[in-house]
Structures are given as structure tokens and as C-alpha cells.
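Listing S7. Sequence submitted for prediction.
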Amino acid sequence: MTERKDFYESSGNVFADLGFEDAEETLAKAKLVLTISEIIERNELTEAVTGRLLGTAPNELAALSLGDFGHTSLDQLSHFVILVEGGTEIAVAPFDRCGANG
């Protein structure tokens, strides 16, 4: 006989579901890191070029890409988006319960 698994509906924020105290901030940071990664990939930037643009060491970039962004502020990550995009506008909007823009 197989063991029964209980499933729970997500709140839309995996960090809240896992009990993180700073779940909203952590989700915002994760979304910014994802945006940075997408820009880097889209523009085919090398690690060396990205490091020079952001003024960071390669190991710091690697840590960000692996989800280790707890030591980096929202402001710094927002600034990184601007730097890798080559000048952009960032809009802040509330998220609905599913985490999607309304």
C-alpha cells in the first residue's frame, strides 16, 4: 500500500509557503535575479562582461544565479537590472495572490 501524500494549494509565493519571514522581499529579489538572468541571456553577455557592467566578481554573479541573494538588497538588484539593460525604466506594481501582475 502506498503512503498518502497531502497537498496544499500555494499562496502564490513559494517563500511564504516555506515559512520565510521576509517572503515578500525574497520573492521580489528572486524576480529581479530572474530578470537579470534573462537580460544577460538575451544579450549573450559573458560572465566577464556582466561582471564589469555590474562591478562584481564572478563568484558574486554565480552566487546570485544560484539563488544566494540574501546579502544583496532590492535596491542593488534593481540597479543591476538597469546596468545590464543599458538603461531602462523599472515599474513597480502590486501582485495578485498568484504572483502575476494585475
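Caption to Listing S7: primary sequence and predicted C-alpha cells for the chain studied. The CA atoms of residues 50 and 56 lie 8 Å apart. The chain has a mean pLDDT of 84.
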